[in-house]
Design goal:
about 100 residues, AhpD-like, CMD-like, 2 domains, 4CMD/NDH-1_regulator, peroxiredoxin activity, Carboxymuconolactone decarboxylase
């Protein structure tokens, strides 16, 4: 199974990618005022689920909770997504949610 990377392990493995992620993605893109952090988290969860990027979901699920999304809202988003991205994508995403503490 692939290694789960977080901010620290990514920095050890690929320092430049970690730097770009921090500076460009989280330091610029996530800070733009046109969307709230909550809206950005919802979009990110939908994209990761639709694309089957389940390895990235646990971190973003926790981040979404810090950005104000409730567990019920996340479940509803993945349920809604089943009709647009497919049942397997939605169920796989929900499986990642189960890994998070209630």
């Amino acid at each position: 199974m692939p290694q789960r990377l977080d901010q620290h392990t990514l920095a050890d493995l690929a320092p430049k990618l970690a730097e770009l992620s921090q500076q460009v993605l989280f330091g610029d893109i996530w800070q733009r005022p046109e969307l709230t952090p909550r809206e950005r988290s919802l979009i990110t969860l939908a994209a990761l689920a639709a694309l089957g990027r389940t390895q990235q979901l646990p971190w973003h699920l926790a981040f979404a909770a810090r950005n104000g999304l409730t567990r019920e809202q996340i479940v509803e988003a993945f349920t809604h997504l089943a009709f647009y991205a497919g049942w397997p994508a939605a169920v796989s995403a929900l499986g990642c949610l189960e890994e998070e503490p209630r």
